[in-house]
Amino acid sequence: MTAQLGHHASPDEAIAARSNMLLGVKLGILSEAMLFGALFAAYFVVRADSPGWPPISGFERPELILPGLNSLLLVSSSVTMQLAVRAVRSGEGSRMRRWLGLTMLLGGIFIAVQGYEFSNNGFGLDSGIFGSTFYILTGFHGAHVLVGLGLMTIVMNRARRGLVSREHDTALEATSYYWHFVDVVWLFLFSTLYVL
Amino acid sequence: MNQRRHLLVAGTAWVVLSALGMFLVAGMQIIPVIASQEAEIENRAFVLLAVVSVPVMMFVVVGLVYSAIRFRAGGERGDGPPVHGHRGFQTAWVGISAVLVLGLFVYGTIGLVDIRGAQTAEFEVSVSAEQWAWHFDYPATGVASKELHIPVNQRVHLTIQSTDVIHSFWVPAFGVKQDAVPGRITQIYMTANRTGTYPGMCAELCGLGHTGMTMTVVVSDQADLDTWLSQQPQASPS
Amino acid sequence: MSAMARRSILPGPGLTRAVLWAAIGFAIGAGALAFGLKADEGQIFGLGYLFALFGFLLGIGAFRFWLTWAAGREIDVHEEHAAHGRAGDWRRYFRFTTDHKVIGIQYLVTAFLLFFTAGIAAMFMRFELAQPGIATSKDLYNMIMSTHGAMMITVALISIIGGLGNYLVPLMVGARDMAFPKANALSYWMLPLAVLLVAINPLLGGFDSGWTAYPPLSQQANLGQQAYLMAFVTVGISSILSAINFLVTVFRMRAPGMSLLRIPIFVWALTVTATLALIATSVVAAAFTMLLFDRLLGTSFFRATRGGDVILFQHLFWFYSHPAVYIMGLPGLGAILEVVPVFARKPLFAYPLAVLSFISIGVLSFMVWAHHMFVSGMAEFFHIPIMFTTELISIPTGIVFLSALGTIWMGRIHFKVPMLWVFGFVWAFLIGGITGVFLADVPTDITLSDTYFVVAHFHYTIIGGTIYGLFAGTYYWFPKITGKMYSERLGRLHFWWFSIAFNATFLPMFWLGIEGMRRRVADYPTALGTVNLIVSIAAVNIALSVAVFAFNMVRSWRRGAPAGANPWNAQTLEWQTASPPPIDNFDVIPTVTATPYQYGSLGSTAGEGRAAP
């Protein structure tokens, strides 16, 4: 029997399974990084091709205030996520749940703020290359945030049932890797789509 | 038989077959019809690559065939010698490969630069591709035609555009090929050096009519070209 | 078993339920858009497919464990175990079975069925091309040609790594299964719907863009085009998941004593392949997603009139698709190099250098993509560096020949069927490689690009590398997988018939290309008629020889002579356990002390090619 998440024949197998799972998650994140890499590459190419940015008059680039706020929210949420991981490592279940809950809240506010910004942008996916690149990048990122919130919901649910502890922290650890990745992607997005 | 003899026999076969092959290939004209400077340069590249390929190919083929004949196990159930590698041979192999690659790269770069040539021209044609036909505009005289007529021994500049999907402008006898890309202008500078009529065709899948998207290309001397141009209808002002 | 105790009128997890739930999913997804919002047929079909895929996977039980785990409920340990399937139970091949050996066979059989289907498509193409003029229709030709390409690419991508790789890698590294058996099964079960999309494509109008799907042509309305794009992305996601599995298995689950330079060369090849798949696939997924968005959501990534860049697609597409040809080729090269030492009874020559060369091929494969774009109108400065890297990659590729030739030289060669394929590979891959140099050199590429020279080149490399590797590996490992021996006689017939037909089909195509015959055309100048006719007749023979192969496989599986644990007297770990192996592979995980190529030492002798008396 291979060591798998869920039940283990021995403590060694449990350690190996955790380590394998985390390696798998890191590799998956590498693949997702390439996805965003391709989208960013597309953005840079069409922007370099274009006479101005935005190329078609009538659109304005979004103001920096909302995405700036969002950057603060996400960076904070990475901090709270890491605090949750710290808490589980020192065996403090309720502390962990609180930090995790806060992370989810921050992530949720991020989504709400993004939604609000999108509704006020005045351009859509079909607004030429400017809207296309803007929304595919922010859209894929937003989808990844939603997935992250889903993962955190699952971990929270299991934590409430006492299934997350110092010995059984793989899911939380994996989710934290994913969440930090999502945060880093946002920072790239913010600097290239909004600032530069 | 020991290793030395095997190497001698196989090596001799290799040398003889390579020499034979290189000799046969060196005099060939690989591009069937050559009507431009660019095609001449390309043909020389073809021949050189073919000549260099011969000893490389023969090395592998002789090694393979010789082994298949000489090193059959027959009824022997025993294993071969426990040889895991040979530093000298491996180094030589990699080294020679590297030298060949470098040489081909330098030759290819020179060839490419020569083919692109001077980015100036005496005769301008504007090529437009659509599903599924070619159109040619001659800006100097205002002529529009479905045929491409260019002067011999003069530098010609073709600007190429597409109105719908990607097509590709190709005239085999000229050794020139360039995609026609919507949203972009691509170009070819070339010098035809043989009069005659040559086929041209679209070389990028562009839908149903791709198979039939061909063109007629005529290379003529200046006088004949001028006559032809004067006989063509003018393009309607757009 | 708990499933038996809970009798219910509703079908339990399995293929029947999967198909049912897929249909329901499609109805929900498509229906929501069709009757709810104003959507066009592409959007309706697109959402329908997404729901259908999800429904299918739910129905087959792919998510059962994870959903239970996520809900925080008790996991049934018996059900977990049962997911491996019971040996001898044929039904486990049609279920969500987590045993890597079952999954390997599922991949292999699926790949071969696709291969046969794509081959029939090729027969249609050759029928049309047998004579000048249009015998059928240009529309039908473009459709079938595109489908042939899409299917064969899929076969080349999944047959060896998904089929032989899944079956053998855990065995060859001394593990009891892959790192993530459930994810492994999920990877497989993502494929049937994708394959279905490609198979029913003609009913959706087909797609005439070729597998390369360049816009703007691929943006022009046609549901079949969209189906292809969606199928491709599905297979892509499946392969990324699979790649993660391979990498974690090889890096974390090897038997004691199996250091990196004691890993079998086949496993190394698949490791590099998995790395390429992991890194590159997302890029083409992005490109196809952008194309789908252009078609469905009004974006303008590749619409020049609205600021898009048509050539951008090609860059993104080929950034994946060039490494992809190594994803196709490396497993074949690995299989070939795994087979050579066994039948030359000599160590694999220059094994560490061969490993290094596979890694170098992998790294360099990311730096050459634009050689598919020399005449595309891309930036001029790019041509020379790409010509350099492309020619450079021939150095590590050449090492494969060094290793193969060095192994057979002075060996004791036994021409069993797997070894025949090795020799055939050397010839075919040599032609493929040499002609690649003509395409790498920009001056000659200008003439050759988009002609039958290219078609010949890639058939020589892919058939020579992947298909010959697939046949070599399938015959070689047939006794391990089935416990029976195949028929040598029929195998030899297959090999010679195939090889003669293959060379007769594709060698003339080099000439056709130089004579000006373009790719992807249903017709050509009359002067090329005779050669095309010969090619068509030869091509039919390829199909016939493959029929011999299929017959041999099926008959031998059912009635072949018993093979025993190690009919070839090979040294890799899979041969140190029963044929077929027990469910958890080994009674005792062996300890490794050297490379599996210690031929010529310790009184080792050739295998008898059958069960030891």
Outline:
Chain B is an alpha+beta fold. Chain B has helices spanning 3-26, 37-70, 87-116, 222-231; strands at residues 123-130, 133-138, 143-145, 148-151, 155-162, 167-171, 176-180, 186-191, 196-202, 214-220.
List the helices and strands and how they pair.
The complex is a heterotrimer of chains A (196), B (238) and C (613).
Chain A: H1 11-49, H2 65-89, H3 93-120, H4 128-160, H5 170-195
Chain B: H1 3-26, H2 37-70, H3 87-116, E1 123-130, E2 133-138, E3 143-145, E4 148-151, E5 155-162, E6 167-171, E7 176-180, E8 186-191, E9 196-202, E10 214-220, H4 222-231
Parallel strand pairs in B: 1-5, 4-10
Antiparallel strand pairs in B: 1-2, 2-3, 5-8, 6-7, 6-9, 9-10
Chain C: H1 2-5, H2 15-36, H3 41-59, H4 64-70, H5 77-82, H6 100-129, H7 138-173, H8 181-189, H9 191-199, H10 223-252, H11 265-296, H12 310-344, H13 351-364, H14 383-392, H15 394-408, H16 417-440, H17 442-448, H18 452-482, H19 488-514, H20 529-559
Helix pairs in contact in C: 2-3, 3-10, 6-7, 6-8, 6-20, 7-10, 7-11, 7-12, 7-18, 8-10, 9-10, 10-11, 11-12, 11-13, 12-15, 12-16, 12-18, 13-15, 15-16, 16-18, 16-19, 18-19, 19-20
Walk me through what this model shows.
- The complex is a heterotrimer of chains A (196), B (238) and C (613).
- By secondary structure, chain A is mainly alpha-helical.
- Chain A has five helices and no strands.
- In chain A, helix 1 packs parallel to helix 5 (170-195), helix 2 (65-89) runs antiparallel to helix 3 and helix 2 (65-89) runs antiparallel to helix 5 (170-195).
- The mean pLDDT of chain A is 91.
- Chain B folds into two domains: 3-69 and 102-116, no CATH class; 123-231, Immunoglobulin-like (Sandwich), CATH 2.60.40.420.
- Chain B has a five-stranded mixed β-sheet with strand order 3-2-1-5-8, with no helix packed on it. Chain B has a five-stranded mixed β-sheet with strand order 4-10-9-6-7.
- In chain B, strand 1 (123-130) and strand 2 form a beta hairpin.
- The longest helix of chain B is centred in the N-terminal third of the chain and has 34 residues, at 37-70.
- The model of chain C is unreliable at 1-6 (pLDDT under 50).
- Chain C has two domains: 11-74, no CATH class; 97-576, Cytochrome C Oxidase, Chain A.
- Chain C is mostly helical and 613 residues long.
- Chain C is 65% helix and 0% strand.
- Classes of the chains: A mainly alpha (196), B alpha+beta (238), C mainly alpha (613).
- Chains in contact: A-C, B-C.
- At the B-C interface, helix 2, helix 3, strand 7 and strand 9 of B face helix 7, helix 12, helix 13, helix 14 and helix 15 of C.
